[in-house]
């Protein structure tokens, strides 16, 4: 098939592009490189079935041109990361809402199937041990900027499902839970690349809050496989699926594991949320998916568990440090 990936030069998007090309598909990538990087897809540039367009997903003319060339759309373009959400709330909301509006409107005109990547953030502050797609959502108050990302992505979901019900646009929603792997950056608050970088540089490993909060991490290859499987099935339109791993760990335990696997002498220190993100920051105490639905529909089973994921990230980060230019010597 001919696939368009918005946000395709990002961490997940670049891995998705590789997977699609590997099975013989053609891929068009649209990315404004605000959080993605051209280097993520540099190895694909020589492939005749690949093209990267630097542009904004809110630019109707650019998206319309690419929509003509594709059969399906993987809509990944979004503002990502806790740090970006806290520091740039206007950009977060506008990018997520306007970009999705443009993609869905143009896809509906041409009847192109769309996979919308959403987030586990939409489950909000619920204290459940694991989250199912039919659970009620508990979002914090609007004066807490932390929840603007969750609300903007939830509106994206509502809009995609409305297009399916009212205009029969084949749209499927994938709620991603903490995807990790090579090429992910810790610049916007992603915890594993942040911990690994701190450990390899023998800097303090900074655990925000108490460290008791629990997260489940999924390897990018597993997640990409799930997205492709959901898109390949014709009967997934109008459905919402959790995508992730259902084995969780506390952030405190994660820090100790990263330190051990990296052979690091780093100290593990706790940083209050207020110091890291400002007064009033709220966090979810647990975030683990119920994967029953996606297992039933496409037979999804995570292949990678946390130690194997960390091994890949640590190896990638070590290699990157070995190949980056040395700092100039000053006298």
Protein described:
The chain is an alpha/beta fold. The chain has a domain at about 1-180 and about 220-245 and about 285-305: NAD(P)-binding Rossmann-like Domain (Rossmann fold, 3-Layer(aba) Sandwich), CATH 3.40.50. The chain contains 11 helices and 14 strands. The protein has helices spanning about 10-20, 60-70, 80-85, 90-110, 150-165, 190-200, 220-230, 250-260, 275, 290-300, 305-325, and strands at about 1-5, 25-30, 50-55, 70-75, 115-120, 170-175, 180, 205-210, 215, 220, 240-245, 250, 270, 285. The protein has a 7-stranded parallel β-sheet with strand order 3-2-1-4-5-6-11, sandwiched between helices. It has a 3-stranded mixed β-sheet with strand order 12-9-14. Helix 5 links the parallel strand 5 (about 115-120) and strand 6. Helix 1 (about 10-20) crosses helix 7 and helix 2 packs across helix 4. The longest helix is centred in the N-terminal third of the chain and has 22 residues, at about 90-110. The N and C termini lie far apart (about 55 Å).
